[in-house]
């Protein structure tokens, strides 16, 4: 009997160890419009590096129905069908439709979640989208309940919405994920954490954007202590570790220094850093831009994160070493896995060395 129990224990342990962790790859499809080596389309995706591919973004209309935000790209160019076809390269790949994102805001989602008829419109349109195109599930990225035009009832309505989606998806086996704000102040304002966790398969925690130029000083985009604090808060509020997916930004937040001789973390800044040649947005640089800059780079071990500067330009970001620290933490907590925002700002062309260095670092830690 003792031998039998020991054998069962070994088998159970092997199943836990053998369970594949999630590596969720968000894809901002608009990178198709970038120029030169910043242009990104389905041909640049290595499907073997992801367990999930999150096709971003769809929006909703005022009636709550899901709609394309770029019909020419989604349908005329066939990006949706091309994304689904990646399952021919990796038969285990799950392709998810992502609804929401920062630019969508909160107002329409607040209205939809609080209205039974609009919720049904949302759910029915979601089922049609997934069935008609072959998606494997939905990722709802409402940024954020009870904020940016929402109201306090959003917190309870979000739970109701997720429960109704879960029930509608069950007969089809569709997966349901959400992307959520990470830090305690944002998360506690927006979510009934224990309740939403019961309704979803996984929770993508956006553990980045902890510092911005609007703070008036330089700071780290995703310092290790802030990432750990955020995950520990979610755990403390009843989110199971095996549903939490730790977010990694494949980009940096950039700053224009007030005085180029003051180039340390916490130094005063006068605004956002200059736009990159690929991403074209101030205050934001892709890792594929940062690694080619040849700026003076410092790894700050207190924050387990690097920063770089040149003249009055300063950027904080993640590199291979900082991602390793994050993955070690994810493993120590037994998290479901990791996600990246996003594929098109990793060094996917390998211009600074190997292709997809950050995503491959995640895989080496979690899957290989």
TrEMBL record:
SUPFAM superfamilies: (Trans)glycosidases, Chitinase insertion domain
One BP term from GO: wound healing
Pfam families: Glyco_hydro_18 (PF00704)
First and last residue of the signal peptide: 1-19
Domain GH18: 21-368
Gene3D superfamilies recorded: 3.10.50.10, Glycosidases
UniProtKB keywords: Glycosidase, Hydrolase, Signal
Domain of life: Eukaryota
E.C. no: 3.2.1.-, 3.2.1.14
Membrane-spanning ranges: none
GO cellular component: extracellular region; extracellular space
GO terms of molecular function: chitin binding; chitinase activity; endochitinase activity
Family: Belongs to the glycosyl hydrolase 18 family.
Protein name, entry field: Chitinase 9
Organism listed in the record: Drosophila melanogaster (Fruit fly)
Gene name of the record: Cht9
């Amino acid at each position: 009997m003792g031998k039998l129990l020991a054998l069962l224990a070994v088998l159970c342990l092997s199943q836990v160890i053998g369970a594949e962790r999630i590596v969720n790859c968000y894809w901002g499809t608009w990178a198709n419009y970038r120029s030169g080596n910043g242009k990104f389309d389905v041909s640049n995706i290595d499907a073997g590096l992801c367990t999930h591919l999150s096709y971003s973004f769809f929006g909703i209309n005022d009636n709550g129905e899901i709609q394309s935000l770029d019909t020419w790209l989604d349908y005329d160019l066939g990006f949706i069908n091309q994304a689904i076809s990646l399952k021919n390269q990796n038969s285990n790949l799950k392709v998810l439709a992502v609804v929401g994102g920062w630019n969508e805001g909160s107002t329409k989602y607040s209205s939809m979640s609080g209205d039974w008829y609009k919720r049904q419109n949302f759910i029915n349109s979601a089922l049609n989208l997934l069935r008609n195109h072959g998606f494997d599930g939905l990722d709802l990225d409402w940024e954020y309940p009870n904020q940016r035009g929402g109201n306090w009832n959003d917190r309870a309505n979000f739970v109701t919405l997720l429960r109704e989606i879960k029930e509608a998806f069950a007969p089809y086996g569709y997966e349901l994920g959400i992307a959520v704000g990470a830090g305690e102040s944002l998360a506690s304002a927006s979510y009934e954490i224990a309740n939403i966790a019961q309704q979803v398969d996984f929770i993508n925690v956006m553990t980045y954007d902890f510092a911005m130029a609007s703070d008036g000083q330089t700071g780290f985009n995703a310092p290790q202590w802030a990432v750990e604090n955020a995950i520990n808060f979610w755990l403390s509020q009843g989110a199971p570790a095996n549903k939490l997916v730790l977010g990694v930004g494949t980009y940096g937040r950039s700053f224009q220094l007030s005085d180029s001789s003051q180039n340390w973390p916490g130094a005063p800044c006068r605004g956002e850093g200059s736009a990159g040649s690929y991403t074209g947005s101030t205050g934001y640089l892709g890792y594929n831009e940062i690694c080619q800059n040849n700026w003076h780079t410092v790894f700050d071990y207190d924050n387990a994160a690097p920063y770089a500067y040149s003249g009055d330009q300063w950027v904080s970001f993640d590199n291979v070493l900082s991602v390793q620290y994050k993955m070690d933490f994810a493993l120590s907590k037994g998290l479901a896995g990791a996600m990246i925002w996003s594929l098109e700002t990793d060094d996917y062309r390998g211009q600074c060395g190997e292709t997809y260095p950050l995503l491959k670092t995640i895989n080496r830690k979690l899957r290989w």
